[in-house]
Design brief:
alpha/beta; Transcription Regulator spoIIAA; Rossmann fold; 7-stranded mixed sheet; 6-stranded mixed sheet; 32% helix
């Protein structure tokens, strides 16, 4: 059993298959407000898009009006509910839809009940990862909940061994903090939890950060050891995001299949994920470059953890552009170059300037790639990935470098990062393998 027996009993309760959201809502003692959609907007959300933008709302029916975190019905112009969700009076995301009417009619046990819905969705996420073979003896660092991809918008949970790091980026997640933790504590793999609130995003959600329930993290470990594809990593829990980028797991694994006997350069290497995979797979020589001293400290520690020859793998602290310009001036080239910069386009409005940065970085990386060699280049900017402009940017970079490129492989986030096709905004990672001639 994946969660507590209480969850199983909850899901097994006999229910009526004829109940509707309207029926269930009418039995609520305090009533449920209705968010009425504008004409022409209903089908988008019937098709599963989870984020109801304020511009899609015609009016709200209910007195007193709903408060942030309240359960509301989402209805069409005839006031017929199409689903229910959680309201936010401050955010551009007016409602995060949690369940559609047709789901309620089939099984009303979770209707208008966030705690039961959390149990059901988290249990489903655990079973999905198990079916994907995660965790395993070779990999115990993975994503358990991927926000909209697991139909819990605003909630991210990464698991590192027996530790869960919960990243909150929605007001409703903060409101239901204890039920979420209770569900994760019922997952028998997890022994401890760290809660990480995304403060800048929560400001946009209208939360007063002084009111956030800040936990005492003094008992939490600063670092934890994990294994991915048979390679050991030390993860800093004070690091970026949840501490480890499990989304690149399958792309790192691919690098290991083409590195034997090759000279490899890992730009923006962070704690050495790609570099370690190359070195473990008998690359002739591996160089990693990053500007973060804490990340490089972990990268060097990871060399020792994996008993790798320090004569064949090294990490340098230097700005990526400076390093590549200097290397190009010395006519240095590598068989394989990996370019995985941080998010350069956090917002769509900066996409044009970010495109220039991606073009310049990749043009330099192509100059350092041996003719006929490989460049694996990445963008973790959702705005870039969703724009469809990454490949044209790379074509522009090739023209700047005086090189020609062909696309050999296109990848994204690992399979434990599911994406809901009705919410394509959930796709953020692009990973493209190029042959550079």
């Amino acid at each position: 059993m994946l969660l507590s027996t209480r969850i199983t009993r909850c899901l097994a309760l006999p229910t009526s298959t004829t109940a509707t959201l309207q029926d269930i809502a009418s039995n609520q003692p305090n009533g449920i407000a209705k968010v009425i959609l504008k004409r022409g907007k209903t089908q988008l959300f019937r098709d599963g898009s989870p984020m109801v933008y304020s511009g899609s709302v015609d009016r709200i029916i209910g007195r007193p009006p709903p408060k942030t975190g309240d359960i509301v019905l989402v209805a069409d112009g005839t006031q017929t509910p199409i689903g229910w969700g959680l309201y936010n009076s401050f955010s551009m995301f007016c409602v995060r839809l949690m369940q559609l009417e047709e789901e309620v009619s089939g099984d009303p046990s979770c209707a208008l009940n966030v705690e039961k819905l959390l149990e059901t969705r988290i249990d489903a996420a655990i079973k999905l990862r198990k079916n994907l073979g995660i965790p395993s003896a070779n990999t115990n660092a993975y994503r358990l909940i991927n926000s909209e991809g697991d139909r819990l918008s605003g909630l991210i949970i990464d698991v590192f061994g027996d530790l869960a790091v919960i990243a909150s980026s929605a007001a409703w997640v903060e409101k239901y903090k204890q039920p979420i933790k209770k569900c994760i504590n019922g997952f028998n793999v997890v022994k401890s939890i760290i809660w990480r609130s995304s403060t800048e995003i929560l400001k946009e959600e209208g939360l007063d950060l002084a009111d956030l329930d800040q936990e005492d993290l003094s008992e939490s470990p600063e670092r934890v050891k994990v294994v991915e594809n048979g390679i050991s990593y030390m993860v800093s829990l004070d690091g970026q995001k949840t501490g480890f980028y499990a989304d690149q797991r399958e792309n790192r694994q691919f690098i290991s299949t083409i590195s034997d006997g090759q000279k490899v350069l890992d730009m923006c290497c962070y704690t050495g994920g790609f570099a370690l995979n190359a070195a473990r797979s008998h690359a002739l020589n591996v160089t990693g470059v990053d500007t973060s001293s804490p990340a490089l400290e972990l990268a060097n520690h990871n060399i020792v953890l994996n008993n790798l020859d320090p004569g064949r793998i090294s990490f340098l602290k230097q700005d990526a552009t400076v390093f590549m310009k200097n290397a190009a001036s010395r006519n240095e080239v590598w068989d394989i170059v990996i370019m995985d910069p941080p998010k350069l386009a956090p917002r769509r409005k900066v996409l044009q300037s970010a495109s220039g940065m991606y073009r310049n970085l990749n043009s330099l990386a192509m100059r350092l790639t041996k003719p006929g060699g490989f460049l694996m280049t990445c963008s973790c900017s959702g705005a870039m990935t969703q724009s469809g402009q990454f490949l044209p940017v790379l074509q522009g970079a090739a023209a700047m470098a005086g090189r020609k490129i062909t696309v050999l492989r296109q990848g994204g986030a690992a399979c434990d990062h599911p994406i809901d096709p009705s919410y394509p905004e959930g796709a953020y990672l692009s990973n493209i393998l190029l042959r550079v001639v």
